[in-house]
Amino acid sequence: MSYGRTFTEWRAQAPDWDAYTRHPFVQGMADGSLPRDAFLNYLVQDYLFLIHFARAWALAVVKAGDLDEMRACSAVVHTLIDHEMALHVETCAAAGIDTNAMLATPEALTNIAYTRYVLDAGLSGDFLDLLAALMPCVLGYGEIGSRLAAEAAPDTPYRDWIDTYAGPEYQAACHSAGELLDRAIAKRLGNAPQSSPRWATLGDRFATATRLEVGFWGLGRA
Ligand SMILES: Cc1ncc(C[n+]2csc(CCO)c2C)c(N)n1
Questions:
Q1: What residue stretches are annotated with the Thiaminase-2/PQQC domain (predicted)?
Q2: What is the pLDDT of residues 163-184, one digit of tens each?
Q3: Whose CA is nearest to atom 3 of ligand 1?
Q4: How far is Cα 183 from Cα 167, in angstroms, rounded to an integer?
Q5: How many domains does the chain have?
Q6: Ligand 1 within 6 A of CB of 25
Q7: pTM score, two decimals?
Q8: What DSSP assignment string belongs to 74-110?
């Protein structure tokens, strides 16, 4: 599967991409062996993660260079707050964890590290720095979702999670994000961005965010 040219190149150069998308936590969702408590720990942390991630996409609206970029980024803010977080709220509610309990849970250090890294990429850099740090999250889950939809055990209890990220709405959002990235790169770095001095730095940001994703799965310990 492909979510655009830039992503394909950065992905190939991020040493931890497979450690992220094929993490034991992910394989545990696929075969159903992941303990429920581990999943719920992850989901509560992920709820807190998404709050700051929505702030980062809102910062992307501020850092955008034209109305099309603003529209694309504000759509992600909306999707995140009104759709993606609903999965977390509903799944946790079914396990007796309400939103107040989720909000009262201290953020884990690896969670703080990840979201604040992304926010700093945007605050200290420009739109491209921020997009490079945002992409592993969006596109990695797209890749995981569509692989698990094909490979997961039919009776895995994590079917809702898989369906959310494998579904046509989320996959369409991934294609839009990949296009947004390709257009943003072409607009600022031209048609041969690999020869820009910024290319390596942007790839490093992508690789660092990928590393932070690997750490995030570690939060799902029962
Ligand atoms: C640690 C972590 N990484 C990635 C995602 C997935 N995700 C976060 S924001 C976003 C884009 C808008 O839907 C997506 C897909 C997650 N939930 N948690």
A1: 14-217
A2: 999 999 999 999 999 999 999 9
A3: 137
A4: 25
A5: 1
A6: no
A7: 0.96
A8: HHHHHHIIIIIHHHHHHHHHHTT--HHHHHHSPPPHH
